[in-house]
């Protein structure tokens, strides 16, 4: 410094004082810029160094020299590691938006590669580092502060309960207490009435399930699907019949009169009702709840235990399923539990076990066919990805396993156990094309358009045309999911072949085995949603209860999302509208109180306010409008009696309200399929030329993270990605793929 530096600013000449002011302003701007830039780099607390506060400032007396801050070179971004495949797949947010993501987008292996000699590295996660960084530097902008405030306001009762349990060293009791609480709620719902209560002579679904136990216990197998079809003839696949036989045998040991042939029709004693309700709860505890717990552990393994527990609470109290199974009375949790076990097995790489579980799901209820295009396309895509040798071998094993599973399931209806003609009866009963296009008012395309176009009258004697039209529309509806999975397997295989030709294959980059996770796994939840919603909207003979099938993958995705994610908003809206679509059925069953209580409980549990205006989200604004319409319709229904000319006025208004929402969810799922597929393998067509260093960085990243040093953590990262990037877009997000290319290129140059 020169001597003029020791003079007070007020004593300097005018020119010197002006230059001093400019230098001071420039220094403060540089300091502010450094702090803003450093807040965007993710580093552990031990490596955070705020050199800006200790930076040397040089005030030079010449006109050309200015005061400046010597800013440090930032540490290399943790996502620019050799195991950061998930960065290509995660729809990231700008700034600190990452904190609002419900699922950690990077597996623990990415962080572990930065700290190879640290024994604590296996317990580090990207989300933990980001949370630590935010507590150190605070929100980087007013927008982030607003998002954080919204998140804190949206914390549901379930998350608060989980947080309280963890803080009081009772986290090991969260899962048992959640299961116990959900079971208690199910029993409370069961205290009400059920389908067909005191409504002879046909009664309802409760009597149908009881009657199937009656006839399977007393009749030979070849008569199960032909006995008295006018009175609740058996029309579900054989596994349902076997389960009914088992329950009937146990019930007959307790009280034979409960299932006496013919004499027990319409039986509604207290003991028989208690037994029937208990069978639903027991099967739920044996199949569905373990499948949910396995799903949370397998698909959300990179999340903290708090978030996994909160996700489990969200799934355990699924309102639509609880109202139908434990109120209306059915065994849908068995079918959904078997499907969940199948996708859990696929996520773990056990494709043969997954195929067996899915065959069992199909064998329990034919509505599991709604998932079949997605499951089959995923397995075909994996076979394509594995290549000619491993792929062909896996395909043959899957074909043999599936065929044997179906043969074993239908064995009692085949020779030598029964005449060959016996097999025709269950097939005809399972696919009831003779019943017509639809029976009740269901919120799908056919009932929605039937308000203006009377399909049954136009095609009164030409039902075959409607069947073909329904089949064609359904196939067009799920075609995007099939194309995304198969094309994804083909494209990722091409990328893998190109990588193997461009670089030397090391042991860590060895070809994938059939038990390894596939890059197209993140597409599976959205494909399940697209296919099942397409069947619900366009297929033949859809019942209002069938909305449970598309609601399952939608709720699975919701469980891994933060309240600011689009998938959370669409998932909550879809579930609430799905329950409302079943209101005519629930009202008929006398379950109005349970309907209201479950909606309030579940929305409070997940922290969702359906009437809150969310100006940054189309789904949020739509939710406010739709829920307002639902409240108005309920109030009008309470106050006004429909005219005799239009007895179905309110069910029709229900259809007109719900069908557009289901259609938008179907379109949104296709949109997300395209986005996730793009993030995984790029869009169809010729790719632009990229610098070789960038391509090499991406290829190395992909192979290392997916099939590299830590297979288990890599698998969990892929599954978390399907509920992370695939969970929707929040605010302030940029193109993840473009940013990945830039950061990967920068990381490659540092090497």
From TrEMBL:
Signal peptide: none annotated. The keyword Nucleotide-binding does not apply. It is a multi-pass membrane protein. GO terms for cellular component: endoplasmic reticulum membrane. Residues 26-37, 49-62 have a biased composition (Polar residues). Its main location: endoplasmic reticulum. Pathway: Protein modification; protein glycosylation. The chain crosses the membrane at residues 173-194, 274-298, 310-329, 335-360, 367-388, 394-414, 465-487, 523-540, 547-573, 593-611, 618-637, 649-668. It comes from the Eukaryota. It is found in: Endoplasmic reticulum membrane. Keywords: Endoplasmic reticulum, Glycosyltransferase, Membrane, Transferase, Transmembrane, Transmembrane helix. Pfam families: Alg6_Alg8 (PF03155). Its EC number is 2.4.1.-. Residues 38-48 have a biased composition (Basic residues). Residues 1-67, 726-751 are annotated as: Disordered. It is an enzyme of class 2 (transferase). Belongs to the ALG6/ALG8 glucosyltransferase family. This is Alpha-1,3-glucosyltransferase. The lineage of its organism: Eukaryota, Fungi, Dikarya, Basidiomycota, Agaricomycotina.
């Amino acid at each position: 410094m020169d001597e003029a530096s020791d003079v007070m600013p007020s004593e300097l000449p005018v020119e010197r004082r002006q230059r001093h002011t400019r230098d001071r302003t420039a220094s403060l701007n540089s300091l502010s810029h450094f702090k803003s830039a450093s807040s965007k780099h993710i580093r552990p607390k031990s490596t955070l160094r705020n050199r800006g506060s200790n930076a040397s400032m040089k005030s030079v007396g010449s006109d050309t020299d200015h005061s400046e801050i010597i800013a440090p070179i930032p540490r290399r971004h943790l996502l620019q590691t050799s195991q950061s495949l998930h960065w290509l797949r995660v729809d990231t947010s700008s700034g600190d938006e990452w904190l609002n993501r419900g699922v950690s987008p990077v597996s623990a292996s990415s962080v572990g590669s930065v700290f190879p000699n640290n024994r604590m590295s296996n317990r580090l996660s990207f989300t933990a580092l980001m949370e630590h960084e935010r507590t150190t530097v605070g929100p980087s902008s007013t927008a982030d502060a607003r998002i954080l405030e919204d998140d804190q306001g949206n914390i549901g009762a379930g998350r608060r309960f989980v947080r309280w349990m963890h803080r009081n060293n009772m986290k090991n009791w969260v899962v048992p207490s959640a299961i116990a609480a959900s079971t208690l709620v199910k029993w409370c719902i069961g205290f009400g009435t059920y389908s067909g209560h005191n409504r002879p002579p046909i009664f309802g679904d409760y009597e149908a399930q009881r009657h199937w136990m009656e006839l399977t216990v007393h009749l030979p197998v070849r008569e199960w699907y032909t006995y008295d079809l006018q009175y609740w003839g058996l029309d579900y696949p054989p596994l349902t019949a076997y389960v009914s036989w088992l329950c009937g045998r146990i019930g007959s040991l307790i009280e034979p009169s409960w299932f006496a042939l013919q004499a027990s029709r319409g039986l509604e004693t207290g003991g028989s009702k208690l037994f029937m309700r208990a069978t639903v709860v027991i099967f739920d505890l044996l199949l569905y709840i373990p499948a949910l717990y396995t799903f949370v552990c397998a698909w959300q393994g990179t999340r903290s235990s708090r978030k996994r527990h909160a996700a489990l609470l969200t799934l355990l109290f699924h309102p639509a399923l609880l109202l139908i199974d434990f109120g209306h009375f059915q065994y849908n949790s068995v079918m959904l539990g078997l499907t969940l076990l199948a996708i859990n097995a696929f996520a773990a790489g056990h494709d043969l076990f997954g195929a067996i579980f899915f065959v069992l799901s199909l064998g329990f209820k034919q509505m599991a066919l709604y998932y079949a295009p997605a499951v089959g396309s995923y397995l075909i895509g994996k076979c394509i990805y594995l290549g000619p040798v491993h792929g062909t071998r896996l395909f043959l094993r899957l074909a043999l396993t599936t065929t044997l599973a179906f043969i074993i399931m239908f064995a009692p209806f085949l020779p030598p156990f029964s005449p060959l003609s016996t097999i025709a009866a269950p097939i005809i009963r399972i696919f009831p094309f003779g019943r017509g296009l639809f029976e009740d008012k269901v919120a799908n395309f056919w009932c929605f358009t039937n308000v203006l176009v009377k399909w049954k009258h136009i095609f009164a004697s030409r039902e075959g045309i409607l069947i073909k039209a329904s089949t064609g529309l359904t196939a067009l509806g799920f075609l995007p999911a099939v194309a995304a999975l198969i094309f994804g397997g083909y494209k990722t295989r091409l990328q893998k072949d190109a990588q193997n030709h461009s670089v030397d294959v090391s042991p860590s980059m060895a070809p994938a085995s059939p038990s390894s996770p596939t890059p197209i796994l993140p597409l599976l939840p959205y494909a399940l949603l697209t296919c099942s919603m397409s069947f619900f909207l366009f297929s033949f003979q859809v019942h209002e209860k069938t909305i449970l099938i598309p609601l399952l993958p939608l709720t699975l995705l919701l469980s891994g999302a933060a309240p600011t994610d689009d998938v959370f908003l669409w998932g909550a809206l879809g579930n609430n509208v799905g329950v409302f679509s079943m209101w005519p059925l629930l009202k008929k069953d006398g379950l109005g109180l349970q309907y209201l209580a479950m909606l309030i409980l579940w929305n409070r549990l997940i922290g969702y306010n359906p009437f809150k205006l969310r100006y940054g989200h189309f789904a949020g604004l739509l939710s406010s409008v739709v829920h307002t319409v639902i409240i108005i319709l309920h109030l009008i229904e309470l106050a006004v009696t429909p005219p005799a000319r239009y007895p179905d006025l309110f069910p029709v208004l229900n259809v007109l309200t719900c069908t557009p929402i289901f259609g938008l969810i179907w379109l949104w799922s296709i949109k997300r399929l395209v986005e996730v597929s793009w993030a995984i393998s790029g869009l169809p067509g010729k790719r632009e030329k990229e610098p070789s260093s960038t391509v090499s960085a991406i290829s190395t990243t992909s192979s290392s993270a997916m099939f590299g040093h830590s297979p288990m953590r890599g698998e969990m990262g892929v599954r978390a990605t399907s509920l992370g990037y695939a969970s929707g877009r929040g605010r302030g997000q940029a193109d993840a793929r473009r940013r990945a290319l830039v950061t990967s290129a920068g990381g490659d140059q540092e090497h």
